[in-house]
Amino acid sequence: MTKHGKNYLAAAEKVAETPYTPLAAMQLVKEVASAKFDETVQADFRLGIDTRQADQQLRGTVSLPNGSGKSVRVAVFAEGEAARAAEEAGADIVGTDELMAQIQAGEFNFDAAVATPDQMGKVGRLGKILGPRGLMPNPKLGTVTNDVAKAINELKGGRVEYRADRYGIAHVILGKVSFTAEQLAENYGAVYDEILRMKPAAAKGKYVKSIAVSSTMGPGVPVDSSVNRNYTEAAE
């Protein structure tokens, strides 16, 4: 059993069991955040899916309208014109063989990786290194593409990844405690809509079972999963 400090316990006492509207939940998350750093706000969606089944996987990316508040360093595997386009778009690292050598040596000076399709033959050899870290370029996530500038802009502009774990829970970043409650609620709405849109066809029964939002050091705040519009409006 995890032991929590007095700040966490004091914050938890302020959280009711009855689910909150998205906006009210974000207001409370901000209110009870007590760390001295700008905590990350995350949503946890408990879904009625069995991710052990191939047809019930849930993974993708979503662009947050207000950004994620996180500075994202992007590495790009590209040559020639694509490499130049990547540099102009603000990629932090651009290369091929030299970049691969750095990775094989254990140097990871980036948070996301993009590759042009012609580089995937080489990049594929790094699968065992990049895969477990969630850094492997993937066509489904838009990170294997000839339009590297678009991918870089999206990653740096607030595109976040979501993926349901083995328990059917998708953990998704919504932003920072320093965001306004309205900004966090708008980001939450974008994520909620995306998760509904991507519901696996094979999912049975109730799809969204429960939702909670929390800051890095704070308690979970339950969100009313039936509220799927007007995310930034207060309850009447």
TrEMBL record:
InterPro entries (UniProt xref): Ribosom_uL1_bac-type, Ribosomal_uL1, Ribosomal_uL1-like, Ribosomal_uL1/biogenesis, Ribosomal_uL1_3-a/b-sand, Ribosomal_uL1_CS
Pfam families per UniProt: Ribosomal_L1 (PF00687)
GO cellular component: ribosome
SUPFAM superfamilies named among the record's database cross-references: Ribosomal protein L1 (SSF56808)
UniProt keyword annotations, A-Z: Repressor, Ribonucleoprotein, Ribosomal protein, RNA-binding, rRNA-binding, Translation regulation, tRNA-binding
Family in the record: Belongs to the universal ribosomal protein uL1 family.
Subunit structure: Part of the 50S ribosomal subunit.
Protein purpose: Protein L1 is also a translational repressor protein, it controls the translation of the L11 operon by binding to its mRNA.
Descriptive protein name: Large ribosomal subunit protein uL1
Organism of origin: Gordonibacter faecis
Gene name in the database record: rplA
